[in-house]
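[#protein-structures] MJ: dropping Transmembrane 9 superfamily member here for a structure pass
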Amino acid sequence: AGLPGLQLCAAAALLPLLLLCLPLRGCADEHEHTYQDKEEVVLWMNTVGPYHNRQETYKYFSLPFCVEKIKIKIKISHYHETLGEALQGVELEFSGLDIKFKEDVMQTTYCEIDLDNGRRDAFVYAIKNHYWYQMYIDDLPICGIVGEADKNGEDYYLWTYKKLEIGYNGNRIVDVNLTSEGKVKLVPNTKIQMSYSVKWKKPDVKFEDRFDKYLDPSFFQHRIHWFSIFNSFMMVIFLVGLVSMILMRTLRKDYARYSKEEEMDDTDRDLGDKYGSEVADMIELDNRAAQRETQKEGAAFVAAALKEAVSPFLKRPVKEKSKRRYNCGKGGHFQAQCQTPRKQNW
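AK: finished. structure tokens for Transmembrane 9 superfamily member:
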């Protein structure tokens, strides 16, 4: 009686593991890239920024789009599939557009923008700097322009209608295109309606080849940054020259030291260890004596030069004795004591 009960307990314990091992076909999403008919397809909004500076990016809803009026779904969230996506700072946000697999949507208004002066200035700044935004559907990127200005640069227009064409092959999405329409002039204190439409089509594109058009060189504009290349090239040349100079100086010193040691080894080898060491000592003594003689000669030269330079200041000029005498022209007495009459013109 105890054995069947034990078997039932074991079966109850293994049942959750068996359920985890079974493939789950009912929960298809963008991570598996398979969808069922009328299943929800999420349109993610990524970033917005100037077209001529791809490194400057902001969140899509940093512009005053009507995010507060979009139907937010808490259960929808995006996680990073790759490390590169996380390092690039990709932060996808739900667009709020209701899209279902193989279900066309006619032009539908999904939100309304209350355009005050602050929001108009934000859109005008974005249009002046040629802001463009990026979206994703099933990992396929989509790009669009925020708006455009007229030829005179006085009036600015916002694209309000997103026309999506999505291609499918079986139960997979293989292509997506965006057409921006509905150009509306930006006027303060007005309301702008944002709308979208979805059309599904079946192109002759395999799921494995759906990224081929993004790899086409004519699809993206490749800009070569010549200044960055030149700067990197000059930096490499400078570093190579600096390292080479340091290595050459080090090798030159090592070569001179090893050459001297080899000469001493040759002397020891020719004369023997005992005589070689004696010769080395004699050479060392001669070198020291030569250094002392050189120091003495230098000191004598400095002393002679110093004496020659100072001697003019030490010699005092000798004043010549005056040949003039008082009254009589004879010396040995003062003028007041001279009894000889004073000469004329004295």
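MJ: nice. Residues 28-223 form one domain.
AK: one more thing. The chain has two domains: 28-223, 226-281.
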